[in-house]
Specification:
It contains 28 helices and 20 strands. The protein has about 775 residues and is α+β, with helices and mostly antiparallel strands. It has a five-stranded mixed β-sheet, with helices on both faces. Strands 13, 14, 15 and 16 form a four-stranded antiparallel β-sheet that branches. The relative contact order is 0.09.
């Protein structure tokens, strides 16, 4: 990983000083002040509770295997902070105590932000935070703070904007130097140990000898961050021309050979792909669909896709998706499951549906807590080596399988003696099934059979290896994304088990991660922690809307309304529109950020705006539509200037500018037929719609209380009847699936988007399996 150039201060190197600390169950932290008796007792208790059940994450061990050092992070619940609890660094969690000590002792603050499955965070820990020389200097001269970015996205977002401003890019681990007043005066990402120590020395020297210059710089950086966060909004809604411009920008960076956008490293970027599918629907653009299908094909065939265990790794380090960064994130897999599902709806390609199955089966098998919530991530490293768990040699495959199965795996997955990753092989699809079958002299159906039989055997062999670390904290927002994926896939792929997983996860988050009507951000160590953020409320509300449309159980719709109402009450910017990342009860880190761009996950404002539009259709409450409009206006200048930077906001705009379809299916009382109508809706790609189904009688009456548009709908002539409406004006009701399909296929034109052809599916390219 390249070292980022930093804004630094010249200064003399401060010599290391000896120091002392005190811990009853470990050696003193080098260079640290002694701990109080009260803190020592807390650490002893925590060590007693956690020490027996966890292996120390340090190389500094006593002969009996216990850690030599222990710091305050042993008292935390975050898996990332606990990983650093045995460092010789005197870490503090983020909070007033750390900054009060920095002020009292006139010391700068070293802020280190990362997450538990971050490879380069592990590297910097091993090289620097486990280094006793560096730890001694850090403990003597700084107050050191560790933050889990997944638990405190507000702290991460605020200071990441600083690093991006100073260096032009960002990433994790993030390293920022702060004043005791929490203002940043320098920052970067990963540092090699010698450079890191030099930076610590130089910046401490500057803090001591040039305090006015440091204060001035910190104040200027803070003002610039605040100015960016307080950007003015627009006067009106952007028009559909920004969708065309976003498509043009994405097309200009598209890799027509390997799929994806730009060069290495390659990220999946699901919001971009979803926007292209929406654009395809309006413009009938074969190019837009090709960009999505080629990308999905290449990713599914690449090493970024775990060919044995299922799911996708974080990103590829090369342009053709072969060599991944091996960590797996829940949010990536949730979004990719949906993109493959939508591509399946459009193209009817079963290989895309198979990838959605593959992702969700992996999550159900490996990333689901016994209570039903979904775990956050798994690491890239195993036994301290990146990718070791996932790679193979030809000999390992031949030892695991008989000759026909081994020959099939070696040929299909391109396994060689040379390998493609440090002398070993990351499995990928080397060529399509027909081509490989021809080389092996067997029928394609036989090759598929051999591969299908070999995969569980390889999985069982791999399961005996030392697995990567799994971050078992449960995050409310990320669970919302996966609830959406399971709920939607369960209906489209006719898999009730997926819908039940979505139900179970939704119950867990609502019942175990909420108090006094307010969500908590994370669940770890048997308890919920931290006030939830914009993303948590928005993603979970979206997941519950999808779960309602999968089950038609009114609980989920009511809960989505309640969550969105909390957002309006506590997160809404009444002056300029849009939602802040933090609620009224959160502390403010530099400034209240109002996120709009899509990183690995869609912006909370985009999802909240789309939720408001969907709820406005369900409830006919125009105040919700007006608030969505205000959100889109707040970011209109950005959408006009760089539309491709915010594809999820453009998806919300697409919903707003379209004539969303209001679909109501009414069954006769105690009906047993009519499922063909619902199946027709499930198969269709209609991104801008709401859907409700009810039987005549009490069920329809209950729905009427919250969904007014069902009020005058009936099951005509005793048959299940579908109503497709736009802006409360309905097409002729029908009980014929073919007629319903035609009604759903009608696409309203958008001014500013040029159609390339008639609506409908494009010819499907050949599949890779």
């Amino acid at each position: 990983m390249k070292v980022i150039r930093l804004l630094t201060f010249a200064g003399l190197v401060t010599p290391l000083l000896a120091g002392s600390g005190s811990l009853p169950t470990s050696d003193p932290l080098p260079g640290s002040a002694p701990f109080s008796a009260e803190l020592r007792q807390k650490l002893m208790t925590a060590l007693g509770e956690k020490g027996a059940s966890s292996s120390p994450h340090t190389r500094h061990l006593r002969p009996d295997g216990t850690p030599r050092y222990t710091n305050r992070l042993i008292l935390e619940s975050s898996p990332y902070l606990l990983q650093h609890a045995d460092n010789p660094v005197d870490w503090y969690p983020w909070g007033d105590e750390a900054f009060a000590r920095a002020a009292a002792e006139s010391k700068p603050v070293l802020l280190s932000v990362g997450y538990s499955t971050c490879h380069w965070c592990h590297v910097m820990e091993e090289e620097s935070f486990e280094n006793e020389e560096i730890a001694t200097y850090l403990n003597q001269n700084y107050v050191a703070i560790k933050v889990d970015r997944e638990v405190r996205p507000d702290v991460d977002d605020a200071y990441m904007s600083v690093v991006q401003m100073l260096t032009g890019s960002g990433g994790w681990p993030m390293t920022v130097w702060l004043t005791p007043g929490r203002q940043p005066f320098s920052g970067g990402t990963y540092f090699p140990p010698r450079q890191f120590l030099a930076m610590l020395q130089q910046l401490r020297q500057a803090f001591d000898t040039e305090p006015l210059r440091v204060a001035e710089q910190a104040g200027e950086i803070t003002r610039r961050v605040q100015q960016v966060a307080e950007r003015p909004g627009g006067e009106g809604l952007p028009d559909a021309a920004v969708l065309q411009r976003a498509f043009d920008e994405l097309a200009a960076t598209f890799d027509a050979t390997n799929g994806g956008f730009g060069h290495a490293p390659k990220f999946p970027r699901p919001p971009d792909l979803e926007l292209l599918l929406r654009y395809y629907r309006h413009a009938a653009s074969a190019r837009a669909l090709e960009m999505v299908t080629l990308t999905l094909e290449k990713m599914a065939a690449g090493g970024i896709h775990d060919q044995v265990g299922g799911g996708f790794h974080r990103y590829a380090t090369d342009a053709d998706w072969q060599v991944p960064h091996f960590e797996k994130m829940l949010y990536d897999n949730a979004q990719l499951a949906v993109v493959y599902l939508e591509a399946h709806q459009i193209t009817k390609r079963e290989d895309f549906a198979a990838v959605t199955h593959d992702i969700l089966d992996y999550v159900g098998r490996e990333m689901t807590a016994p209570e039903g919530g979904f775990y956050a991530a798994t690491d890239a490293d195993s036994e301290g080596v990146e990718g070791k768990f996932f790679v193979w040699t030809p000999a390992e495959i031949r030892d695991a399988l008989d000759v026909p199965h081994a020959d099939a795996v070696l040929a299909y997955h391109g396994v060689t003696d040379k390998g493609n990753f440090h002398g070993k092989n990351i499995l990928h699809v080397a060529a399509p099934v027909p081509e490989v079958a021809s080389k092996l002299g067997i029928e394609p159906s036989r090759l598929r059979q051999l591969l299908d039989e070999a995969r569980p055997k390889l999985y069982a062999i791999r399961a005996r290896r030392v697995p990567p670390h799994k971050d078992t904290k449960i995050l409310a927002g990320w669970n919302g994304l996966m609830i959406s994926a399971f709920a939607r896939a369960g209906t489209v792929l006719d898999n009730p088990g997926y819908v039940e997983r979505a139900r179970t996860a939704a119950r867990f988050v609502l019942e175990r991660m909420r108090a006094d009507g307010r969500l908590r951000r994370s669940f770890a160590g048997g308890a919920a922690h931290e006030e939830a953020f914009l993303d948590d409320y928005a993603y979970l509300a979206a997941g519950l809307l999808d779960l309602y449309e999968a089950t038609f159980e009114l609980r989920w719709l009511r809960e989505a309304v309640a969550l969105q109402d909390v957002l309006v009450r506590d997160f809404w910017d009444a002056e300029k529109g849009g939602f802040f990342l933090t609620g009224a009860r959160h502390e403010v880190a530099l400034t209240r950020q109002k996120p709009y761009y899509d990183g690995p996950i869609p912006s909370g404002n985009a999802v909240a705006a789309l939720n408001l539009l969907r709820l406005a259709e369900f409830t006919t409450d125009e105040r919700r539509r007006e608030r969505a409009d205000s959100t889109l206006r707040a970011f209109a200048p950005i959408l006009q200037r760089t539309p491709a930077a915010a594809p999820a906001l453009l998806a919300a705009l697409d919903f707003r500018l379209d004539r969303a379809k209001e679909i109501v299916i009414v069954r006769p009382a105690a009906a047993t037929g009519g499922e063909a109508l619902l199946a027709t809706v499930r198969r269709a790609y209609v991104p801008n719609h709401i859907l409700t189904v009810a039987s005549v009688g009490d069920e329809l009456a209950r729905q009427r209380a919250i969904i007014p548009l069902v009020a005058d709908k009936q099951a005509l002539r005793g048959a299940t009847t579908a109503y497709v409406c736009e802006q409360k004006v309905c097409a002729l009701p029908t009980s014929d699936p073919a007629v319903l399909s035609d009604q759903l296929a009608k696409v309203s034109p958008l001014a500013g988007v040029t159609r390339d052809g008639p609506p409908g599916g494009a010819p499907s390219p050949p599949t890779l399996r």
